[in-house]
Amino acid sequence: MTLDQAAPPAASLARDKAAHVEFRSLRREFGPTVALDGLDLTVQPGELLALLGPSGCGKTTALRMLAGFEHPDSGAVLVDGEDITRVPAHRRDAGMVFQSYSLFPHLTVLDNVAFGLRMRKVRTAERRARAAELLDLVGLGDKGERYPHQLSGGQQQRVALARALALRPRVLLLDEPLSALDAKVRLSLREEIRRLQQELGITTLFVTHDQGEALSMADRVAVMRAGRLEQCAAPAELYNRPATAFVAEFVGTMSRIPGRLSGGTVEVLGQRLPVDGEAPAAAEVDVLVRPESVRVSADGEGGARVVATAFLGATVRLTVRLADGTELKADLPAHDAAAPGAGSAVTVSLPERPVLVAERAR
After folding, report:
1. Percent helix, strand, coil in the chain (nearest 5)?
2. How far is the C-alpha of 175 from the C-alpha of 195, rounded, in Å?
3. I need a surface site. Which of 184, 218, 223, 285 has the fewest CB within 10 A?
């Protein structure tokens, strides 16, 4: 059966077995800067794992170590149990998509996708057939004879993705591939990348500083800070049960409300609530709450006041200032006609369930 006869296209492009990736105690220093500080992380076969964190946290360094563009000062990188730490990049069997599209301007779209196959001396007919199949897979089957400058940014990134997949790599590496695109194209392409990754079943490591991308695309998200792993979990667990205050405030919106610990509970907003997880040693703490967990009543008896509102589509986000000057965010349904406006006196409360606490911010 020829490539043209294979159906569905994704079936002929998928690998027989998804790769298992492991980072073991990776450490990398650049002069006085510690980029990775003992990183331990596993990527399960066939999953899309997102590395998320602020600039300089080490996420791109980790990706480049898997690609072979960087080498650790200590530690190891394993793929399917094989130590590839010192294996050259061109022998790693990894497909990489960068933030910049890095397409050859003098080659057609089809020839760009087929370039790696040509370097491996795959026969002309076979490589063109496989390139055409991949272009169909990314929705650009009719653009093969065009040149990169004749495509939009989103289309060029699809070509870059097709080129990375052409060699049927063991792992797919995505280094902030959507950050140069406008919001609408970025949303469309991240859905497309996720669909392709699931159809092909390829193990994928995705670097981003955009929490929305990470939460919507990944099977698991690894949050990094200063070269260390803070937490690695499924998006829902990361959002609802953050392991640290850093994760809680980096993933999603989080407000801090002063509270006081006593006997395993915390007093906050005139309520006494159980503590979720480990509590700091100090009595004076901050309670961390999501906007959707804040209850707002327009009775005006609590001494709080709405200072700003923002329409977010399905919700309206209120910024509420408490009597002590603390500001917090609260989300209410946009269709709620009784939602208080700016200047309204309100009462704020929290649901009767465990809350996350952290050391008092200074």
Report:
1. 30, 35, 40
2. 18
3. 184
